[in-house]
Every structure is written in C-alpha cells, then in structure tokens.
Amino acid sequence: MKLNIALLAGDGIGPEVIDQAVKVSNAVASKFGHEITWKPALTGATAIDAVGEPYPDETHEICKSSDAVLFGAIGHPKFDNDPSAKVRPEQGLLKMRKALGLFANVRPTFTFPSLLDKSPLKKERIEGTDLVFLRELTGGIYFGEKGRREEGETAYDNCVYTREEVKRLAKKGFELAMTRGKKLCCVDKANVLETSRLWRETVQAMEKDYPEVEVSYEFVDAVAMRLVQWPNSYDVLITENLFGDILTDEASVISGSMGLMPSASLGSDIGLFEPIHGSYPQAAGKNIANPMATVLSAAMMFENFSLHAEGKAIREVVNKALNEGMVTEDLADGGKSYGTSEVGDWLASNI
Amino acid sequence: MKLNIALLAGDGIGPEVIDQAVKVSNAVASKFGHEITWKPALTGATAIDAVGEPYPDETHEICKSSDAVLFGAIGHPKFDNDPSAKVRPEQGLLKMRKALGLFANVRPTFTFPSLLDKSPLKKERIEGTDLVFLRELTGGIYFGEKGRREEGETAYDNCVYTREEVKRLAKKGFELAMTRGKKLCCVDKANVLETSRLWRETVQAMEKDYPEVEVSYEFVDAVAMRLVQWPNSYDVLITENLFGDILTDEASVISGSMGLMPSASLGSDIGLFEPIHGSYPQAAGKNIANPMATVLSAAMMFENFSLHAEGKAIREVVNKALNEGMVTEDLADGGKSYGTSEVGDWLASNI
Ligand SMILES: CC(C)[C@H](C(=O)O)[C@@H](O)C(=O)O
Ligand SMILES: CC(C)[C@H](C(=O)O)[C@@H](O)C(=O)O
C-alpha cells in the first residue's frame, strides 16, 4: 500500500514523540511492504510563530490531500494566561477538526498489566478496564453561536445538534460495539437538555438495527461517578462534544497510563491520530518524553486502513518494551530508564 | 431561637432518612434551647401522584414562609425511561431551585479516617481530602431557552450567564475560602466558551478584594482529571451549573463516603439542606438506608443559622457512631449493622 501521511508535529514534545512514531511506522511499512510518504506541516503555537495562525491554509491543503494525519501535540504556556487572546493554538485545533470533518473522536482507555499500580484507583477497581469513548467532535456548544450582549455583561453559548449529526456518531458507536463487547452506553443529560433528548431518541430508534448490541442510557453525572467506581463495567460509550471532553479526560487518568493512551479522530474521509497527552512544554527538547502514546496512535492509524497485522505488530512491540523495561523515566519507577529516541529506536528495530 | 423548617421528605428512602434528621435536630434543639416547628410538604414523585405536579404551589408557600428547608430525595424509576415525559420529579427540583432563588449549591467532599478504605482510590491519594464545590444552581444551560426546530430534527439549548450571576456565586466562594484553606479554584472552559470567559474575567476582577485568597483557574477537563489524581490538592472550587453537576458527582464518589455527604443550596434568603444521595427506591421502606448524610445536612442547616456549636454537636455524634460501629449495613463491612431508625435513635440520644 502507498500511504501519504500528513505529519503535524506541533508544539512542545510533539516533534520528539512524532519522530519515534515515524521510525516505528517506517519499520512496519518496510516489514509489510508498504510505502509511506510523510508530509510535514505546521500547526499550533509553532505555526502562529511562523505564519501567524495555528492552522494555516497550506497545512489544511496538505492534510486534505493525504490519506491520514499523524499529530503530535499543541499548546504553549505563553497563551495560557489569556484565554481571550485573539489567536490561540486551540483555535487551530477546532478549525482543523471542523475543516477535516473529524466528527468522531475515538478515545480508548485500557490497562497494561505491568502498569496497574500506576493507577490512582485500587487494583481491583481498575483491573480489566477496556473501554472506548466516541466523542462527537464537530458540533454542540463548541461550535454553536456564542457572544456577548448588554454591553458585555451577558455571555451566551448555544448548543445545537441535528439528528444527522447524532446518527453518524451513533452509527460508528454501534459498529464499534459489534467488534468488541457489544455494549453501548449513550451518555446524556436527557432529564434537563433538549439536545440530550434528541440524542437519546435518535439512539433509541437505531437500536433495532443492531439487535445484538445491549444499549444503556446514563446521565453524564452518573457516568462521571461510575467511571471512578467501576470503569471495567463499560465497553463503548458515545456522547456529545462537551461531555466527551470532560469524561474522556477523567477516563484517561483512571488507568494510570495516560502517557500511553492513543486516540483517533475520524470523519467520513480522512482520519487523524494523536496521543492524548498534551505538549508538555517543560519536557520539550530533553529527550525524556514517553513516545508510546504516539506510537500506539500510529497503530490505530494502520488499523484504520484495515492493516490489522501492522497495528498488532506495533502493539506487541510496545508491550514487549514495557515488559522488558525499555521505558522512559515516567514509567521507570526510579529504575533504569531510556531516552525518547532510544525507546523509539528500540521499538523500530524490534518490529 | 425559634425555627420554622419546611420538611420535604420526597420519594424513596427520603421519608426514612428525614425522620432521623428530625429526631437528631430535635435533640439538638432541646439541648441548646431552640424551638423547631416542622412543616411537612409534598414534593417529587410523591407530589405528582398526590396532586399532579412535583413542586406544588402549596409546597412553595410553605418553603417561602419557613426559615430553611430540609429535603430528603426525589425520583422514582417509573419516570426514568421516559426523559421527555411531560411531568417529571426533576422538573420540580429545578422549579424549586429557581423559585426559592437557591443559586449556590454547596457540596463538600471530605473523608472519615475510619472509612478511607471505602474509597475506590488508593489511600495515599484520598487521605486528607477536604474540598467544597460551590456550584451555580439557577443559571446556565439548565435554564436557557431550549427547544426544537426544522420539524424536530434540530435541538438546541442555550447557555447564558450574566456578570451579576457569576459575581454573587464567586463572592460566596471567596468568603468560604477565607474561612477555610484560602484557596479558590475557578473551573471553566475559557478556551472554548464565551460564558466561561465571562466567568473568568469576573473572578479575576474580584481577586483584589480578597488579597489573602490564592486563586487558580483550571479547565473543566483538567479538573475532572485532578479530582481523581490529587483530590486533596483542592480547597474551594467554584463553577457553573452543568460543570458543577458533573464534577460534584465525580467528587462525591472519590471519598467512598457518598452515603454520608450532605449539601446545602443557598440563596440570598432561604437555604435548603439535603443529602447528595438519591431516592434509592430499591431500599425504600426496608429500614436499611444510611441516614447520616441527611443528619449531616441538618448540621449544615444549623451552621447556616450561625449555630456552630449545634452543628458541631451533630458532626461529633456522627463521628462517634462511625467509630463505635453504630452504622447501617452499607458501612458494616459484613459485621454487625443497625437499622435506619436505630441509628437515628442512637444519634439523637447521644447528642
Ligand atoms: C484544547 C481544547 C479546545 C480541546 C477540547 O476541549 O476539545 C482539548 O481539551 C481536547 O479535548 O482535545
Ligand atoms: C436531577 C437533576 C436535574 C439534578 C441536576 O442535574 O441538577 C441532579 O443531577 C443534581 O445534581 O441535583
């Protein structure tokens, strides 16, 4: 297979971890006879510094003409203390999601037996957790009309959803559940919000098309609780943009392996793959960042091309590295640790 | 002091736990020389069954003319599978909050040394946790315009906040922080939402009036993570209605003592006091429900009348019961347990 992959390294540790994912992907490609052409492009604070905006048109053109996007991380502290600054890295992220039609954010939370003790939860609570959130990513209150009135004294944000938006996300959820534990939880606040009632009635109407999937409906506040209490009781969860933002982050820390969690953002067309961790500027350039989440994001990318053996090869080599202690300092428990690039080299050469 | 207290027992286990709080409050009143007149009134599913609505005018009149409201729990499973039902217990709750002007929901999460092992979190994570959320309760997306258009295919919910609404909540937050650890965290999503930017700028402008309070600003997704990772790093948190709904419930389970957590909803006028647990219909009428959260809510009620010794007497007797194993089965770890009313009697007679 010939693959054109847009490479958006972004800010902070982005470039370092992306480098390792490229090495590992290239090793996979050569082992399985694929050919990858990497197309680097600017994004985030790096792009603001270079050309004045976080998601330049040129970057968008490169993404549009590629088969997938591999993404590092964006964000820089110099933008953090002024949320109303006119140009911010996050705006690039939102623009990119919308422009590429990435409506489904796939956020798995799973555990590694060797890392269970990193979880803030007790072992018996976290053991066996293997869940996936599908977060709607291009609608809801993120993209509704927002502004001020009464001379700035009143602020508003509109949350809007159409049945079609809910359907296409829910469809991915049902399909994903069919490949996994066949359980789907629709997370909403249907006792208060009209958009949630639309979500719930739309999903209810789809149930008959997936008779094997066991569907449940839970309020977002109840899920925020059960994620901490019994995370291993979930399989696939679908939810709207803002609830997904909060709950996927909550879920990411319960495993204790946040530095290892990959994600995918899918649309009808192109997919984007990125680690869930941020740009972690304090660690940038120090060769200490853990590249495994980005490497596992590359695994999701191969799997999304239906290259399952390729994805599996990556997952296996990551497991092997964990078992053999070929890890960065965040996972070394004070024992021997390796640099970002050493871990990347080891993974690539063990594919 | 002469106190008129509206007594809204509600549904499920509500009446049983309320009974115990009444006993304990009466014991406190007689010890400290106060006179309480209890005014029972209908609410929730019970009120729907009796008079067709969850918060009848008569109940509202009773609340308005009282000095405080002691509330049990509402909700019944027969309403759960139809979120769009025209009359629902939750609507009564929202109507009551708005009608009584209860704009500040005070939700503490603290730990009991003897119950630390009930937490889903590891001991070193949860130990020492003592935080309070102030959730805005009468604004935001809960009360904004909502509805459908395009023949029901599009749903919308508006989130609206005025600077005044933010100010009065934040003021309570600053004042509360001054009586505690002097740390205030404003939880928002100012990188995306205009209402959050209004929250942040309003709180920023108030900082100078409370120079001793150390203020931080965190995004709601980050807080959802840190609550699980380092709950004991927080003191007072202020936030808008929907974020508060999600985060206070998340916070409530980390302590492992959810069955013991009280809450208060305050306005400029009357206060309402209730356990955070629900109506738990499966346990109703079995004399097994834990009354301690409701009893501690009565403690918050006394404290809100500046009757601090009275509140303390209740907190102490609850601690004593926990230490001496005078507990309901949820806390008995398979050991000896007591009924709801036995625990209530014991607490009242040990005041
Ligand atoms: C940076 C921010 C706009 C973004 C979001 O809220 O979607 C982030 O939190 C995420 O989850 O990817
Ligand atoms: C029942 C529901 C409307 C309510 C809310 O969302 O406010 C509840 O979850 C709560 O937190 O008191």
UniProtKB/TrEMBL annotation, chains A, B:
Substrate binds at residues 97, 107, 135, 221. One of its GO terms (biological process) is L-leucine biosynthetic process. Pathway: Amino-acid biosynthesis; L-leucine biosynthesis; L-leucine from 3-methyl-2-oxobutanoate: step 3/4. It holds the Pfam family Iso_dh. Its EC number is 1.1.1.85. The record marks 142, 189 as: Important for catalysis. Mg(2+) binds at residues 221, 245, 249. Keywords: Amino-acid biosynthesis, Branched-chain amino acid biosynthesis, Cytoplasm, Leucine biosynthesis, Magnesium, Manganese, Metal-binding, NAD, Oxidoreductase. Its cofactor is Mn(2+); Mg(2+). One of its GO terms (cellular component) is cytosol. InterPro entries: IsoCit/isopropylmalate_DH_CS, IsoPropMal-DH-like_dom, Isopropylmalate_DH. One of its GO terms (molecular function) is NAD binding. It catalyses: (2R,3S)-3-isopropylmalate + NAD(+) = 4-methyl-2-oxopentanoate + CO2 + NADH. Residues 4-347 form the Isopropylmalate dehydrogenase-like domain. Its main location: cytoplasm. Homodimer. Belongs to the isocitrate and isopropylmalate dehydrogenases family. LeuB type 1 subfamily. Catalyzes the oxidation of 3-carboxy-2-hydroxy-4-methylpentanoate (3-isopropylmalate) to 3-carboxy-4-methyl-2-oxopentanoate. The product decarboxylates to 4-methyl-2 oxopentanoate. This is 3-isopropylmalate dehydrogenase. The gene is leuB.
